[in-house]
């Protein structure tokens, strides 16, 4: 286990010296919640939504989770592209431990990035129990692992062309967020968009988190269904990622 | 005369590099088109104002802004990967090189924004398409100004890539949030203090978005004073950006590195 922790720290260290991305993410979140979210909520008059600034703050937390999780997947591909992956594969640790290190590093980065945004969101919503806070954190991590696994699973594209992978993943990321319930409730979506949103993992992640935080269940998807989808996504994509890492051979380099 | 040819050749090379960057095109197109065709339409169902009419012209300005800011990434890449050393060895003066990058940044952003405008004109009925053509030169000056901001950030961050992208992100969010791109001035006045409201009113992104909404899509007659405001709000950014990049290049020439 000490090898895994050393590897996690080895990868995490550059992100913290200086922690420019973390501070930037927190600053952007605070600006978006205090200015954009507050002003746009004055325009949102649909009574079924209630206070849109709260709805939006949760959406931002989901977006940060998604960004960090997809960053973990992309990081793996960058390592392959820059020739660092063969070094990692040659280390005297098993592939499963290497995969665990990748997952733990992603989880640690996610925790750092979410520390302030999630706290601020919970304060904005207020009136929460410890159980709901812990359940919310768990749901976010499930979503994060699911998305990271998805991006790792897609990394096979990078072994054909890393440019194509980056183009595909970044394009997909924007579409996954827009066609989901991150920024608006499912019942507001026009039917043709709602059917696309049903395929976005963020739809289930954001609705589950909102349910846990006490939003009106009538504007959300069934929470049991959402929890089942997230668990299945995390298990299947992480399994796929683990399989991929097991099959990688030393000397691999993305094109 | 020969220097102008070299400047144009460098600008053309940088211009084509923008459109050849596949991942960048994927990001910009997916973000801007989904904002235009998904976010604007869904928000319209949640608001009393016609947010689709309000937001679609603003997406063109957002596209122009994002494409202009990419100039900074290309400058930073040129500095990091040593391309700048080759370019400094060309028969072109240092200020010629600065002009080439700003021209390329402005032109690439304008072409990209024009493609968004073509899509916007399909999805949103315009009352004065001719006004859109009239606004293009002013949008070009604005794009050069925004490219100037990006050049300044690239010069400040120099070899620290992560700093450059973080600065760029913060500037992008700040300028967009403190503008009328997302919400009308009347709502902003109710929420922000007068000093920040003045910043929003003077923000070149607010001016460009308002010009597109009023003159192209609402069909109001173009007011020359408003266009002058766009120029006055954009040109200082171009000048500051040009000096910042020029200063960075001079330092590079003297010290051999940044």
What can you see in these coordinates?
The complex is a heterodimer of chains A (255) and B (258). With 255 residues, chain A is mainly alpha-helical. In chain A, 75% of the residues lie in helices and 0% in strands. In chain A, α3 runs parallel beside α6 and α3 crosses α9. The relative contact order of chain A is 0.15. Chain B is built from 11 helices and no strands. The interface between A and B is large, with 39 and 37 residues.
Task: Give the key terms.
heterodimer, A: 255 residues, mainly alpha, 10 helices, 75% helix, globular, B: 258 residues, 0% strand
Given helix and strand content, the structural type of chain B is mainly alpha
Report the largest inter-chain contact: A-B, 39 and 37 residues
Assembly type of the chains comes to heterodimer
Largest sheet of chain B: none
End-to-end gap of chain A: 33 Å
Shape of chain A: globular
Summarize the SSE layout with pairings.
The complex is a heterodimer of chains A (255) and B (258).
Chain A: H1 2-16, H2 20-43, H3 52-81, H4 84-90, H5 95-125, H6 130-153, H7 162-178, H8 191-197, H9 201-212, H10 223-247
Helix pairs in contact in A: 1-5, 2-3, 2-5, 3-5, 3-6, 3-7, 3-9, 5-6, 5-10, 6-9, 6-10, 9-10
Chain B: H1 2-20, H2 22-44, H3 51-80, H4 83-88, H5 94-123, H6 129-157, H7 161-177, H8 185-191, H9 194-202, H10 204-217, H11 224-255
Helix pairs in contact in B: 1-5, 2-3, 3-5, 3-6, 3-7, 3-10, 5-6, 5-11, 6-7, 6-10, 6-11, 10-11
Question: Summary?
Answer:
By secondary structure, chain A is mainly alpha-helical. In chain A, 75% of the residues lie in helices and 0% in strands.
């Amino acid at each position: 286990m000490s090898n895994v922790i050393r590897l996690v720290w080895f990868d995490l260290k550059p992100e913290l010296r200086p922690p420019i991305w973390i501070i930037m993410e927190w600053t952007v979140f605070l600006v978006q919640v205090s200015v954009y979210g507050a002003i746009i909520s004055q325009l949102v008059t649909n009574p079924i939504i209630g206070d849109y600034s709260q709805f939006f703050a949760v959406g931002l937390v989901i977006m940060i989770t998604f960004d960090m999780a997809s960053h973990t997947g992309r990081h793996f591909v960058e390592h392959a592209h820059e020739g660092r992956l063969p070094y990692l594969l040659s280390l005297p640790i098993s592939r499963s431990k290497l995969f665990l290190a990748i997952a733990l590093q992603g989880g640690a980065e996610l925790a750092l990035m979410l520390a302030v945004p999630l706290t601020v969101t919970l304060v904005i919503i207020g009136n929460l129990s410890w159980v709901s806070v812990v359940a919310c954190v768990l749901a976010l991590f499930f979503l994060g692992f699911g998305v990271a696994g998805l991006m790792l699973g897609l990394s096979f594209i990078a072994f054909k062309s890393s440019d194509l992978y980056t183009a595909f993943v970044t394009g997909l990321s924007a579409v996954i967020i827009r066609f989901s319930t991150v920024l608006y409730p499912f019942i507001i979506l026009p039917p043709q968009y709602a059917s696309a949103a049903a395929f976005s993992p963020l739809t289930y992640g954001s609705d589950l988190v909102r349910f846990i935080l006490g939003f009106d269940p009538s504007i959300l998807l069934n929470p049991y269904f959402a929890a089942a989808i997230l668990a299945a996504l995390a298990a299947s994509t992480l399994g796929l990622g683990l399989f991929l890492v097991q099959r990688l051979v030393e000397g691999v380099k993305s094109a | 005369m020969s220097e102008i040819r070299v400047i144009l050749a460098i600008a053309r090379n940088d211009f084509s590099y923008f459109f050849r960057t596949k991942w960048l095109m994927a990001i910009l197109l997916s973000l801007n088109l989904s904002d235009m065709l998904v976010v604007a339409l869904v928000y319209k169902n949640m608001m009393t104002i016609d947010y689709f009419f309000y937001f679609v012209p603003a997406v063109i300005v957002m596209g122009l802004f994002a494409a202009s800011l990419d100039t900074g990434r290309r400058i930073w890449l040129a500095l990091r990967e040593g391309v700048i050393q080759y370019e400094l060895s060309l028969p072109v003066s240092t200020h010629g090189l600065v002009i080439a990058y700003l021209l390329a940044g402005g032109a690439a952003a304008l072409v990209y924004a024009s493609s968004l405008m073509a899509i916007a004109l399909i999805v949103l009925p315009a009352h004065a398409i001719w006004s859109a053509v009239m606004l293009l030169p002013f949008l070009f000056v604005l794009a050069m100004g925004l490219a100037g901001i990006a050049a300044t950030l690239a010069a400040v961050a120099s070899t620290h890539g992560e700093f450059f992208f973080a600065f760029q992100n913060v500037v992008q969010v700040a300028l967009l949030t403190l503008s009328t791109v997302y919400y009308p001035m009347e709502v902003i006045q109710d929420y922000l203090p007068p000093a920040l409201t003045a910043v929003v009113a003077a923000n070149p992104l607010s001016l460009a978005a308002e010009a597109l909404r009023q003159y192209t899509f609402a069909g109001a007659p173009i007011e020359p004073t408003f266009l002058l405001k766009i120029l006055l709000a954009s040109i200082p950014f171009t000048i500051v950006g040009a000096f910042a990049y020029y200063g960075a290049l001079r330092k590079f020439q003297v010290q051999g590195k940044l």
